């Protein structure tokens, strides 16, 4: 199987993002943080039903998903971790595009009179910032791209009989808007400005396009790498 369909495969994407998921979960546990990504909370809220065993159930789901992914990939085609190298490079390029090109367009050209940097939480611990940045990339892409876009597109096509291309476009716009507004709620919500709203909306659309055409794994890494770049060296745009 060629690179593009291989890298877009959902099972392969899961294996690709698994190290980020493990890094985030261990980071949160090791650092003892009470601050978590909102999308993380959304996904794990149903696990409250299992009480103290919630984390155990989540880890069990991850392990089962890993086994299923390995079985599927090995059955369909020979597993090769070498595919992850170009996938990582591709994600870095997309992250640079969002950070520099898209950021320049929004913060310099569209809003030269109202300059505003992308929102960055002011945590004193650099490792905590990186951990939360990685978690945002993983969980926000799972919630807003994989779950939300897929579900909305299916519901619009199935129940409202909207043609698939149109339902996909509508789903991307709705999911991107929800993605944006989630950044303005909660204790650490950002202050609304037209510039950061526009930047996040366009970034959400770009990530949605990456998810649709290049798969979940590359979308997750693009988001996570952009966030880490922002922590290590804020883009002055």
Top keywords for this entry?
single chain; 0% strand; 237 residues; 74% helix
Q: Give the averaged pLDDT, no decimals.
A: 83
Radius of gyration: 18 Å
The ordered string of helix (H) and strand (E) elements is HHHHHHHHH
Structural class of the helix and strand makeup? mainly alpha
Individual helix count? 9
Low-pLDDT windows of residues: 113-123
Q: Estimate percent helicity.
A: over 70%
What is the strand content?
Answer: under 5%
The general outline is globular
Biggest beta sheet summary:
none
Note the gap between the termini: 40 Å
Number of strands: 0
Give an overview of the whole structure.
The protein has 9 helices and no strands. It is mainly alpha-helical.
Short description:
74% of the residues lie in helices and 0% in strands. It has nine helices and no strands. The longest helix is centred in the middle third of the chain and has 34 residues, at 126-159.
SSE layout and pairing:
Elements: H1 3-8, H2 10-31, H3 38-44, H4 54-76, H5 84-110, H6 126-159, H7 164-181, H8 194-214, H9 216-232
Helix pairs in contact: 2-4, 2-6, 2-9, 3-6, 5-8, 5-9, 6-7, 6-9, 7-8, 8-9
């Amino acid at each position: 199987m060629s690179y593009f369909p291989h890298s877009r495969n959902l099972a392969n994407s899961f294996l690709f993002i698994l190290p980020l998921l493990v890094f985030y979960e261990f980071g949160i546990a090791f650092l003892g943080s009470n601050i978590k990504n909102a999308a993380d909370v959304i996904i794990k809220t149903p696990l409250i039903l299992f009480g103290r065993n919630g984390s155990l159930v989540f880890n069990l789901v991850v392990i089962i998903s890993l086994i299923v992914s390995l079985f599927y990939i090995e059955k369909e085609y020979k597993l090769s971790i070498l595919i992850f190298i170009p996938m990582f490079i591709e994600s870095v390029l997309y992250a640079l595009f969002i950070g520099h090109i898209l950021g320049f367009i929004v913060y310099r050209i569209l809003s030269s009179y109202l300059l505003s940097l992308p929102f960055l939480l002011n945590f004193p611990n650099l490792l905590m910032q990186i951990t939360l940045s990685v978690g945002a990339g993983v969980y926000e892409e799972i919630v807003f791209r994989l779950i939300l876009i897929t579900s909305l597109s299916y519901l619009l096509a199935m129940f409202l009989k909207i043609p698939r291309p149109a339902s996909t476009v509508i789903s991307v716009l709705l999911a991107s808007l929800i993605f944006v507004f989630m950044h303005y709620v909660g204790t650490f919500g950002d202050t609304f400005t037209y510039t950061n709203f526009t930047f996040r909306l366009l970034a959400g659309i770009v990530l949605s396009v990456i998810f649709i055409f290049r798969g979940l794994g590359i979308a997750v890494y693009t988001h996570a790498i952009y966030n880490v770049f922002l922590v290590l060296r804020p883009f002055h745009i």
